Amino acid sequence: MIIVKDLIKRYKEIVALDNFNLRVEDGEIYGLLGPNGSGKTTAISSIISIIPYDSGEIYLFGEKMSPNKFEIKKNIGYVPQELAFMNELTVYENIDFFAGLYIYDKNERKKLVEEAIDFCGLENFRKFRPNKLSGGLKRRLNIACGICHRPKLIFFDEPTVAVDPQSRNKILEGIKELNSNGSTIVYTSHYMEEVEYLCNRLTIIDKGRNLITGTKKQITEKTSLKDKLIINEINIDREKVDKIKKLPYIDSITYEDKTLCISLGSDMAIGTIITFLKENNIYYEDLNIKQANLNDVFLEVTGKELRDNV
Ligand SMILES: Nc1ncnc2c1ncn2[C@@H]1O[C@H](COP(=O)(O)OP(=O)(O)OP(=O)(O)O)[C@@H](O)[C@H]1O
Ligand SMILES: [Mg+2]
């Protein structure tokens, strides 16, 4: 669906994309993750020919992409990071305008606009001007404008920034539905839990370069991150902690505030630890396994925490 090879994009001295690569298959929800200024928006804008780039190759639907490829563009939906609609027009008129860029048949357009209104939950706001809408509703209008022509490939650039949890859930469910109705999705976000929930594959970028690419499982396996066994409200002396540390497949261990945190070299260590605790009459309240999540991976590969860019 998308092939991007060695893309380079400079804004004067700033190298926004530095040999950026991307491969998205038909039917995927693909995550594009990176901290502020890492090049996510620039990547999307280059791919869909909104901005020129310096070198590299871009293929969409198996064809080389360029600004005048109207047949490709009409199969693309773009929900930009910055809200993009006209304040002079009503909700209905805005969606109708964007649908009108690709759909010329009046009746068909009317049907599609109504479907987009329904899909984004804007039924009660048809005649509102955008400046009368809440932040969450503006985001939904932004989405309606981007998807109303029923594109096969949709780019969402941080669609849930600064929206309340209810609107956010509606947006996420909507994206899943668009995908199950056949659209391929590229999704950027700072919210790891969203990407974990939505995307089957992802690439983490920083300074315009791909740092790591794959499924969530492949990515956590590629990094050195280990699952952790957390044991709460446990009374154990130092000597026993040191003994656990020497058991097979234990990477590291910390004991603070009655919580024992053990980094596991293999899941096989769990049984051995439980047996050890039992044999030594060591009691605890609960025990759980914390799997490395994408936040941990992100921190590991970029050295940065994810931040919200509200
Ligand atoms: N129009 C522009 N002119 C000059 N520099 C730009 C322009 N747009 C982006 N940049 C720079 O290019 C780099 C990549 O920016 P980009 O907006 O693509 O990042 P991003 O990953 O989308 O960030 P964010 O998470 O904040 O949206 C940054 O250093 C940014 O300052
Ligand atoms: Mg951006």
UniProtKB/TrEMBL annotation:
SUPFAM superfamilies from the UniProt entry: P-loop containing nucleoside triphosphate hydrolases
Keywords assigned by UniProt, alphabetized: ATP-binding, Nucleotide-binding
GO molecular function list: ATP binding; ATP hydrolysis activity
Keyword Nucleotide-binding: yes
Domain (ABC transporter) ranges: 2-232
Top-rank taxon: Bacteria
PROSITE patterns (UniProt xref): ABC_TRANSPORTER_2
Gene3D superfamilies: P-loop containing nucleotide triphosphate hydrolases
One of the Pfam families matching this protein, by short name: ABC_tran
InterPro entries: AAA+_ATPase, ABC_transporter-like_ATP-bd, P-loop_NTPase
PANTHER family (alphabetical): LINEARMYCIN RESISTANCE ATP-BINDING PROTEIN LNRL (PTHR43582)
Protein name: ABC transporter ATP-binding protein
Protein's organism: Citroniella saccharovorans
